[in-house]
Structure formats: C-alpha cells, structure tokens
Amino acid sequence: MALDDLHYLEISELSRLLAARKVSPVELTEAMLRRIERLDPALKSYALVTPELALAQARAAEQMIGRRQILSQLHGVPIAVKDLCWTEGVATAAGMPLHRNFVPAVDATVVRKLREAGAILLGKLQLTEGAFADHHPDVPAPINPWHRDHWSGASSSGSGVATAAGLCFGSLGSDTGGSIRFPSAANGTTGLKPTWGRVSRFGCFELAASLDHIGPMCRSAADSGVMLGAIAGSDPRDPTALRSAVPDYLAADDGTLRGVRVGFDERYALDDVDAETRRAVESALATVRSLGAEIVSMRFPDVAAVVADWGLNCAVETAVAHDATFPAQRDRYGPGLAGLIDAGRALSGVDYQRILLRRRDFAGRVVAALDAVDAMLVPAQPIAAPTVARMATLGQVPAELAALTRYTAPFDMSGHPTLTLPVAFTVAGLPIGAQFVGRRLGEPAIVRVGRAFQRATEWHRRHPKV
C-alpha cells in the first residue's frame, strides 16, 4: 500500500503495519505533513502544525520499533490535539488571540500520556474562542470536509475536521456542552466523551471546570477505546481525576451483543427531531437489535430544566476561569465568550445554588435510569447536518438553541460517558450521528456496542472527497 493511501486507516490497522515494519513512522509522518500542507489551507483545521517535533518523535519511534520495543498500539501513529491542551515549548492559544503567545513549560497530562505511548504529535487543532460556542472574530472557523456550507461542529471542530479529512489518525477534543459530540456527528467521526474525571484535565485550558471532559475523536469505536486507554487514569496534578483502575476498553468485546441491554426512550429520542434524524436513529436501533442486544423500553428523566440550567452553570464557571483577564482585557474578547462571562458574573449566589441542587438531583435520576441497561441510544442532535447559515441564527431563537443541546448538555451535567458515531447519511450525502450513553465508568460497554455496530455497518468507513 502506497503511503499516500494510508491516511484513512484506523489506528488498529495502521498499528499492525507499523509493528510489522511494513510502514516507516518517518515516511508516514512526512506523508501526513505533506497532506496537511496541501489540504489544510482550505479546511483550516490546524491552529499550528509542529513538523520538527513530529519528525523527531517519528525518528525515535522508528528506532524503538526497529528494536521491537513497542510501547502501545499508538506507537508511531501520527495524531493531533485540540489547541487547549498544553504542549511543552509549543504555543497553546485555546482559540484566543489573547493567548497566542502563551508557551507552556509542561505538557498537559493527556499530551504526556500520548507521548509516553509513542504517539506522534502533528500539531494543535483549531477551536472556538476559549472552547465556548463561537470562533473569535479574528480566527477562521474550520470547514466541514463533506460540504463547506454545513456546520463543522462546535468547539472541537478542528479535531472533527482533521480526523475526518485524513489529516491525523486520531485526535483529542473536549466536551463541555457537546463539543466532542457535535463535531463527531457533523464530520462523520467517532467521539468518546468519557465519564467526568476518567481523564485528567491538568494542563487543559478551562471553560467550565465541573463540566469539561477531555476525550478522543477517531474513525472508529475501537480506535476511541485505544486512545482512551492511553489517556485515562489518576493524576496527582489533578485531584479530581478518578483513581479507578483503567481497563482494557476492547477486552469486553466478543463479537456479538448477546447479553447486552440497550435502553431506548422513544419519547426522548424521537420527539421533535427532524425526519432524517428519526429514520437514522430507528435504523440504528434495529441494527443493534439484530446483533443480539435486548432493547429495553425506558423512561429517561425530563431534561428541560437541566438544559436550561447548563448555560448559567457554564457561565459562572467560565467567569471564574477567566478572572485573571476579564474584564481587565475585555476588548480582546469576542462577543460570544464575553457575553457568557457577563452572564456568569451577574448571577447571584442563591440562584447558582439552586442550579447546583437541580443538577445534583438530575444526576441521581440519570444514575437510576441507566442502572438497568448497559447503554442507551439517543441522537447526537435533533437536526441532521445543519448548515452554517442556520447555526448562525440559532442563538436568536432560545427554543431552538435549547433543542440543539437536548442530547448533549444533560450528560455533561451528569458526567456520564457517551460514544458518538455515524449511523446514517442524509439524502444530500452528509453524516448523521447518534450516541450510546453509558453508566458511570461504563465506557467498556459503550465501546463494545459501538464496535459491534460498526462491524455490521459501513457508515464510519465513508470519507469525504477532499
């Protein structure tokens, strides 16, 4: 296989070629850097490319693999990370011109763990300002590789675009209100938002501390499990990182879904979604059933209040995160992020406490609802492949904005893991995503369901023509 034909391989496929020395990490990295140079000026997925670092890491990987000192399935695999993850000696701007000259002295824990696994860092991926909803007016938004007129997702848009377009073999994103799931759905990739605390947040620019989740964005559920296995675990530099042992996220897979219980709340999953999303979710449910899973009818807690509360909960935490630079340098902020911080600073402590109490109550109800199932199937969003024009006006209609986050914000508020993957395509040829929601620390189960689904379907193997 020629090097120029490798860019859409899954990590598991590429890893075997690297381990067998059929592919050179150096030559592969050079080919990926050429592809980025050729395609990314139009796609704008990278905030910064790191060719010198990538080639140095590739040379080291080639030497170690040649001595049969293979660190992991990621050894020699070129990846990229969202530009809110600190990288030692490499600028980390978090989508903010204000921080474009910030050069961390240390790696984020997730970056360090990827480096220790032998992964090769191609560069830093573009994101919205401060990882909120809008790109800073001076920062161009990444372009959906399926069609430039369609949304590329929210904050982790660069990660979704680069992974979908074959500009890296996997990436890291972050999810505070849907920013792993929206770009995964928009770009036809597979994203894993882990249980809150499963992955250390040390060295990751903060949007809202108790809502932020760092996770992998890949081409398959299996690849997401591989990357999660590399970055998960306790961290003395992040006391909120869970101390639970990190399992092999691929070990539970026996090739079937026998004995797996998949929950489905028809009202929650299908009410008020568009026709193409409804058909896609119903088809995904039928596929899961055909693979041997037991479909369990369930009633999920009402999400209206927690969706409404998410914005102000996020706003207060964002105001704290930006206390050193806002309002002192307000003129360097875009209107979207500045407006969020203003809302957070204006909220009273009493009203914030009410939000926290409702959030805790909701999280408990989610635990109870998911207790009888291994996974629950819901859409990633109620609108299949929205256009850039439609998303630009969404904030003007509060009900539409709340509807968009109906399937994402609740699981940031509760901290539950979700796996988002393509389950269909629109008539116009754009990907449609759905997500499997798991119990807390239930990532092995949702990865198993996702792998079985992807063995039986080809949606994740479709790629944009770029």
Describe the structure.
By secondary structure, this protein is of the alpha/beta class. The protein has one domain: Amidase signature (AS) domain (Amidase signature (AS) enzymes), CATH 3.90.1300.10. Helix content is 40%, strand content 13%. Strands 1-3-2-4-6-5-10-11-9-7-8 form an eleven-stranded mixed β-sheet, with helices on both faces. Helix 2 (25-43) packs antiparallel against helix 3 (51-66). The chain starts with 10 loop residues before the first helix and ends in a 10-residue tail after the last helix. The mean pLDDT is 96.
Descriptive labels:
40% helix; 11 strands; eleven-stranded mixed beta sheet; alpha/beta; globular; 466 residues; Amidase signature (AS) enzymes; 16 helices
Extract low-pLDDT stretches: none
Q: CATH homologous superfamily, by name?
A: Amidase signature (AS) domain
Instruction: Report the radius of gyration as a whole number of Å.
Output: 21 Å
Identify the strand order in the major beta sheet: 1-3-2-4-6-5-10-11-9-7-8
Strand content: 5-15%
Order of helices and strands: HHEHEHEHEHEEHEHHEHHHEHHHEEH
Let me know the average pLDDT.
96
Examine the secondary-structure arrangement and name the CATH architecture. Alpha-Beta Complex
Count of alpha and pi helical runs: 16
Overall tally of structural domains: 1
Sketch the major β-sheet: 11 strands, mixed
CATH class membership = Alpha Beta
Q: Ends: how far apart?
A: 20 Å
Q: What would you call the structural class?
A: alpha/beta
